[in-house]
Write a structure and sequence with these properties.
Blueprint lengths: L1 E7 L4 E8 L6 E10 L7 E6 L4 E5 L5 H12 L13 E8 L10 E2 L2 H9 L8 H14 L5 E5 L9 H4 L5 H7 L8 H15 L8 E6 L3 E7 L2 E5 L21 H10 L3 H9 L3 H6 L4 H9 L3 H24 L5 E5 H6 L1 H8 L11 H5 L13 E4 L4 H20 L1
Parallel strand pairs: 1-6, 6-8, 9-12, 12-13
Antiparallel strand pairs: 1-2, 2-3, 3-4, 4-5, 7-8, 9-10, 10-11
Helix pairs in contact: 1-3, 10-11, 11-13
Bound molecules: adenosine-5'-diphosphate, acetylphosphate (UVW) and magnesium ion.
Length: 405
């Protein structure tokens, strides 16, 4: 059974085609690929088949729809593709970023689910619309294929009320569900589990802080095996400084911009979501570009990195205090997995907890990047949101299939 998993991020679409054999928990990857730098210069579309056959396309990818069409073509490429036709697919799993309180776990997609995802789109303007585009694109081509949605928000539903309620009048929650939701849950949950495995201890016995640092970024605290707090909030705008998102602000700032500069809600939203963060501070959003600029002596780029690192350190410090300790700090996603400078700078301030960085291991992106006598372990774990989505897709479609028998 072939399952296609589509993971739309704000700047990229990652995808994997899995072959699943009934009755075992093995997911063979037939091909994986990525559309990268969507909406900025230097967009790329790459696919690698399990035997190593590669496809590359360069040229502008202006939005997620164009990217999805390119991906479906590559999968069916006559020479280096993996599908004779899209009819060979058994199911499709999608990452969906904002499930609000409507979804506490993954679901089969139907019209009501699409409606609920659309309802939550205002709360995740960079994400739910591309997620819906993916669902729609597949639906248009294969209307009968089962599709599954796996939500970023689901895992954080375990947060205690003290962590998810805001200091607002209660009606705001009761009537409008204004609360912290948290995102990147599929990734945080996966890497926390992998970190526990790497440390040879049960997840429920560990206090873990996971740092998902991609174009968007968030930090999560895990205690007793559950997410107990996370840096993103009602929307994926809150928390650390990100590629184009401001992260935490004094909540009066957007009101002041509207009053003082006469800006509309959508203009202010664009400033905070699309023109802020690293892009707003130094004119670049991609950490690879920012790193090159720092090397060339660009002061704004250096300041952007300092602010980025500082915002991450503050969350790690807060969560260590929230849990009355921390056993492991985990780095994942584009920046977390690839930028050893960033990891080293972040961890520099945790000597007071007895954390000791192993400089060589960190530079080599090894799994454990702290010394043996470090009181807190530092780890680099490759995230695999696609595998988690494939597992849920298989489980949910099989449940329905077995009910039919
Ligand atoms: N090989 C790499 N070296 C350094 N940074 C990288 C590398 N690959 C990705 N990144 C950084 O990761 C970010 C994208 O992370 P990713 O997790 O793919 O984002 P998203 O899923 O939010 O689109 C980019 O902004 C880039 O700065
Ligand atoms: C929720 C979110 O910010 O996702 P991404 O990092 O993929 O943009
Ligand atoms: Mg991502």
């Amino acid at each position: 059974m072939k399952i296609l998993v589509i993971n739309s991020g704000s700047s990229s679409i990652k995808y994997q085609l899995f072959e699943v054999t009934d009755g075992n928990d093995e997911y063979e990857v037939l091909a994986r690929g990525q559309a990268d730098r969507i909406g900025i210069t230097g967009s790329t579309l790459e696919q690698k088949r399990s035997d190593g056959a590669k496809l590359h396309r360069y040229g502008e990818i202006k939005d997620h729809k164009q990217a999805i069409n390119g991906i479906l073509e590559m999968l069916q490429d006559s020479e280096k593709g993996v599908l004779q036709s899209l009819d060979d697919l058994w199911g499709v799993g999608h990452r969906v970023v904002h499930g609000g309180e409507d979804f506490t776990r993954s679901v089969r997609i139907n019209k009501a689910v699409v409606k609920a995802i659309r309802k939550n789109a205002d709360l995740a303007p960079l994400h739910n619309p591309p997620n819906l585009m993916g669902i729609q694109a597949v639906y248009e081509i294969l209307p009968d294929i089962p599709q599954v949605a796996v939500f970023d928000t689901a895992i954080h539903q375990t947060m205690p009320r003290k962590a998810y309620m805001y200091g607002l009048p209660r009606e705001q929650y009761k009537n409008y569900r204004i609360r912290r939701y948290g995102f990147h849950g599929t990734s945080h949950g996966y890497v926390a589990g992998q970190a526990a495995e790497a440390l040879g201890r049960p997840l429920r016995d560990l206090k873990i802080i996971t740092c998902h640092l991609g174009n968007g970024g968030s930090i999560t605290a895990f205690e007793d095996g559950k997410s107990i707090d996370t840096s993103m909030g009602f929307t994926p705008l809150a928390g650390i400084v990100m590629g184009t998102r401001s992260g935490d602000l004094d909540p009066y700032i957007p009101l002041h911009m509207m009053e003082n500069e006469g800006l509309s809600v959508s203009q202010v939203s664009a400033i905070m979501n699309k023109q802020g963060g690293l892009l707003g501070i130094c004119g670049r959003r991609d950490m690879r570009d920012i790193r090159s600029a720092v090397v060339e002596g660009d002061r704004e780029a250096a300041e952007a990195v300092e602010m980025y690192v500082y915002s991450i350190q503050k969350y790690i410090g807060a969560y260590a205090a929230a849990m009355n300790g921390v056993d492991a700090i985990v780095f994942t996603a584009g920046v977390g997995e690839n930028e050893h400078h960033i990891r080293a700078s972040v961890l520099e301030n945790f000597g007071f907890l007895g954390l000791k960085v192993d400089v060589e291991a960190n530079r080599n992106h090894e799994t454990v990047i702290t010394t043996e006598d470090s009181a807190v372990a530092g780890l680099v774990i490759h995230t695999d949101e696609e595998l988690v989505i494939a597992r849920d897709t298989y489980r949910l479609i099989s449940e329905v299939e077995s009910e039919k028998v």
